[in-house]
Specification:
The chain has one domain: Orthogonal Bundle (Arc Repressor Mutant, subunit A), CATH 1.10.10. It has 119 residues and is of the alpha+beta class. It has a three-stranded antiparallel beta sheet. It has six helices and three strands.
Length: 119
Amino acid sequence: MSISAIELTPVQTVACCSPLLRQPLSVDQAERVASLLKALAEPVRLRLLSLVASHADGEACVCDLAEAFDLAQPTISHHLKVLHEIGLLDRSKRGVWVYYKVRREALSDLGALIGGAPQ
């Protein structure tokens, strides 16, 4: 199978891209990275990502996050699902609760892509 036939997630696309200041993104890469940035452009999602990342042990339960918002728990769960599907959060189920953890390598890769200026 050729490399062009492989489907990459937005996070995988970011991981394999050169920093923006070294070479321009291809149209395909830009479309994939844009979906990741679109997910983060939603203020509730950005705040959820921040809350999970800064939570004790770097993971948080939906039950811990819902109280920080004036939103219903299903709405919070939807936003967390989007962040998980795009590749920014890992999740694990424990009993009736779902715990989320930030995929730090995904954030590192995104930071390198955007801020990869030569020193």
